TrEMBL record:
InterPro entries: MFS_dom, MFS_sugar_transport-like, MFS_trans_sf, Sugar_transporter_CS
Stated name of the protein: MHS family MFS transporter
Source organism of the structure: Hymenobacter guriensis
Keyword Metal-binding part of the UniProt annotation: no
Domain of life per record: Bacteria
PANTHER family tied to this protein: MAJOR FACILITATOR SUPERFAMILY TRANSPORTER (PTHR43045:SF7), SHIKIMATE TRANSPORTER (PTHR43045)
Compartments where located: Cell membrane
Length: 501
């Protein structure tokens, strides 16, 4: 249904064969509506495998924040301070994701999609592998967190270029009337990376034992990334450049300055701002609240055993994963806007009540080890655990949280791809996506935890003190609600745009 947006120009992205070559001639005659199913699935598989690995690399640090914190900041400080420090280092990777989107988006719009997401894959994998080798604070002092910050910045830059490349590459192969369906498989990769990271951590922890894992075993998931990246790189090398990009290269219609064309051009700049403040900002906070913050909340606040909390989140995400594809496909038929906006308002209204339900079903805390004093005279706090969580009920509530994620996230790649013209698509969709997810969404764990720590210091009987464990959720809820209002007013319902024209 092309009436939902003006038809796009055929300009695509570079790295293609010279004009007159067989590859260029094939690109000029390429029609994404005539691509075979086997070719599309080859493209989806190669793109998705690499993207899952990059999300895995990015998430394992956050999943291990409570363990890595004392390693990076020393084991003699307060647990809350080391956790906040680790979450701040984790957040550093999110801050630079928009800069990665600018840098690699420009390369992708000028040189090519394939080349760009091969480079981002190697940077991400290399930084993750080296993180597993960095000595702790007790051995090299302040250099430990500084080195890891640099590595996290490299990871953030790489991830900033990955998503836009993968989404654009798949979308430019997909038929116009099934773009939401096919691009939804890229949307699964972020959740898939989180599931993979949690699974590897739990298995490693079980094999090595608690003490060995805390001492050195936490490094294994980082080092494993090296093998995963090598395999993914081999798969991606076999891909050809995007035919749309090759077509534009052959026609000489690629952008010579994607940054200018994306952000100086007033029409395109307006679309970028709508995409950010009316879509991705709210999608980002819902994504990270419903998955990552929920996991952190169960581990660090509710004191649920790692295996139990991992089981709750992984089962909920696995049950919800097919819904990414369902809502992506549904958006091809009824439009992207109503699905995304429904998920966003549900997230704004029901996130806090669902977290209260998760807290209620976690059960009471039991003292495992009493408070004591170590040989140096330093107070060691008691170890508390929730020993009787209602796991089925917590899975059900977490599933509802992830359901909201599938609604806002499943159709969003198709929406962003169709929103922008081909010659600046990589740059234009990457920047609002990574500001919304990297800045607004990525800082949910840090901001929510910081607000909770502040609230816990308030006088007894105050609202902040009484609700200190959940008051931090006010941040993502407020952002989601503001984004919903802006999106309802300004977001255009686009679908089935013929991007070859």
């Amino acid at each position: 249904m092309n009436q939902h947006l003006p038809q796009r120009d055929a300009a695509a992205y570079a790295g293609a064969a010279p004009v007159g070559s067989p590859a260029a001639d094939e690109a000029v005659t390429h029609d994404n509506n005539a691509v075979s199913s086997s070719k599309i699935w080859q493209v989806i598989t190669a793109s998705s495998v690499g993207t899952v690995i990059e999300w895995y690399d990015f998430y394992i640090f956050g999943s291990l924040a409570a363990i890595i914190g004392p390693v990076l900041f020393g084991a003699t400080g307060k647990l809350e301070d080391s956790l906040l420090g680790a979450l701040a280092v984790f957040g550093a990777g999110f801050v630079v994701r928009p800069f990665g989107a600018l840098f690699f988006g420009r390369i992708g719009d000028m040189i090519g999609r394939k080349y760009t997401f091969l480079v981002t894959l190697l940077i991400m994998g290399g930084a993750t592998f080296v993180t597993g080798l960095v000595p702790g604070y007790d051995k090299i002092g302040i250099a430990a967190p500084l080195i890891v910050v640099v590595l996290r910045l490299l990871q953030g830059l790489a991830l900033g270029g990955e998503y836009g490349g993968a989404a654009t590459y798949v979308a430019e192969h997909a038929p116009d009337k099934k773009r939401g369906y096919f691009t939804s498989f890229i949307q699964i990769t972020a959740t898939g990376g989180l599931i993979l990271s949690i699974s590897v951590i739990v298995i490693t922890r079980k094999i090595l034992g608690e003490e060995a894992f805390k001492e050195w075993g936490w490094r294994v998931p980082f080092l494993l990334s090296g093998l995963l990246v090598i395999a993914s790189y081999y798969i991606r090398r076999k891909l050809h450049e995007s035919p749309l990009f090759a077509k534009a290269k052959a026609a000489g219609t690629t952008s010579t300055n994607p940054l200018r064309d994306s952000f100086v051009n007033p029409v395109n700049r307006r679309l970028v701002l709508i995409a950010l403040f009316g879509v991705t900002m709210g999608q980002g906070v819902i994504f990270y609240t419903s998955q990552f913050q929920a996991y952190s909340f169960m581990n660090n606040t509710l004191k649920i055993d790692l295996v139990d909390s991992s089981t709750i989140l992984v089962v909920a995400m696995l049950l919800a994963t097919p819904l990414f594809v369902y809502f992506g496909s549904l958006s091809d038929r009824i439009g992207r806007k109503r699905i995304i906006m429904t998920g966003m308002i549900c997230g704004a209204l029901f996130t806090i009540p669902l977290f209260y339900g998760i807290k209620a079903f976690a059960g009471p805390l039991t003292e495992i080890t009493p408070a004591t004093v170590d040989a140096a005279g330093k107070a060691v706090p008691a170890v508390m655990k929730a020993l009787t969580p209602n796991i089925p009920a917590m899975i059900a509530l977490t599933f509802i949280l992830v359901l909201f994620v599938t609604m806002v996230y499943g159709p969003i790649a198709a929406y962003l791809v169709e929103l922008f013209p081909t010659k600046v698509r990589y740059t234009s969709l990457s920047v609002p996506y990574h500001i919304g997810n990297g800045v607004f969404g990525g800082f949910v764990p840090l901001v929510a935890t910081w607000i909770g720590v502040w609230a816990a210091t308030q006088p007894e009987g105050t609202f902040a003190k009484d609700h200190s464990s959940l008051i931090g959720l006010a941040y993502p809820v407020l952002v989601a609600f503001v984004c919903f209002v802006i999106g309802v007013i300004y977001m255009r319902d686009v679908r089935n745009v013929r991007i070859m024209d």
